[in-house]
Amino acid sequence: MYVVATPIGNLGDISLRALETLRGVDLVACEDTRHARHLLDHHGIKIPTLALHQHNENEAADKLVRLLGEGKAVALISDAGTPGVSDPGARTVAAVRAAGFRVVPLPGPNAAIAALSAAGLADPHFLFVGFLPAKVGARRTAIQALGGVDAALVFYEAPHRVMETVAELVELLEPQRDIVIARELTKLFEQIVRMPLADAPAWLAADANHQRGEFVLVVSGPPPREGMDAETERVLISLLAELPVKQAAKLAAEITGRPKNALYARALELKGG
Ligand code: SAM
């Protein structure tokens, strides 16, 4: 079974290998058959489709396993981007693998990675959060928990909730963080803007168009904490055991992404101790 990433807007964003594969399989399993047909017709691909969405994924996966058993080749796509990423696919992949068939990924478009690639954040790590819970209480708890994560945060959000979510991010995350709002990626009205988190509600409110379309929100990592986190300290101590202070601090900065000056100061303290 081929797991094929498809465009997130611009129909040209499909790989040669994806087109070749979609032309060569016996069946394409897809979330919405009309949506898939639009993509397949655009590329002149005539092939049967099978609906596989979150409400029928188990039965559809059983059917795919049967077809694979009959020697058929199948492709799995979602409405947009990479199957299994905030989209159905994971249960099907697990069932197909459990039945002993090979699963072949065909990498391609993904909204989170597209947004990150144009965000220009210096953070060495990111956490893909995807959609936050819809219920206010659960959403606030989730954001609070994310405050402790030492990474840029990548959210998917629907247009009708973007104002609310951004207001909560401002309220619950550190004010020093930046946000990159990436809307309508690869489409006609694509817009990617970066600003201090606190400015985002006013930017969204300034123009009704700013709240339209599909959104990825990327929040830069938290400001450096006072003192070192345990992992950084562990790296620094290991390097100090083998290297002079300056070199250990430099390497620790490269490995952890922490500021070199802070590591140098801490290395001096540790040596002194
Ligand atoms: N599987 C997809 C992927 O690989 O990115 C994600 C599917 S998820 C159901 C849909 C969400 O992804 C949207 O609500 C939005 O947050 C984000 N998204 C998808 N396409 C987008 C685009 N063109 N621009 C911005 N965000 C997009």
Protein model, in words:
The chain has 273 residues and is of the alpha/beta class. It is 42% helix and 16% strand. It has a 5-stranded parallel β-sheet, sandwiched between helices. Helix 9 packs antiparallel against helix 10 and helix 10 packs across helix 11.
Give the gist of this structure:
Helix content is 42%, strand content 16%.
Structural class, please? alpha/beta
Low-confidence stretches: none
| Rg (CA only) | 23 Å
Helix content: 40-55%
Give the CATH architecture of the largest domain. Answer: 3-Layer(aba) Sandwich
What number of structural domains do the residues give?
A: 3
Give the topology, please:
Elements: E1 2-4, H1 16-24, E2 27-30, H2 33-42, E3 49-51, H3 57-69, E4 74-76, H4 90-98, E5 104-106, H5 111-119, E6 126-131, H6 136-146, E7 152-157, H7 162-172, E8 178-183, E9 191-196, H8 200-205, E10 215-219, H9 230-242, H10 245-256, H11 260-272
Parallel strand pairs: 1-4, 1-5, 2-3, 2-4, 6-7
Antiparallel strand pairs: 7-10, 8-9, 8-10
The protein binds S-adenosylmethionine.
Q: What attributes characterize this protein structure?
A:
Cobalt-precorrin-4 Transmethylase, domain 1, binds S-adenosylmethionine, 3 domains, 10 strands, five-stranded parallel sheet, single chain, alpha/beta, 273 residues, 42% helix, Methyltransferase, Cobalt-precorrin-4 Transmethylase, Domain 2
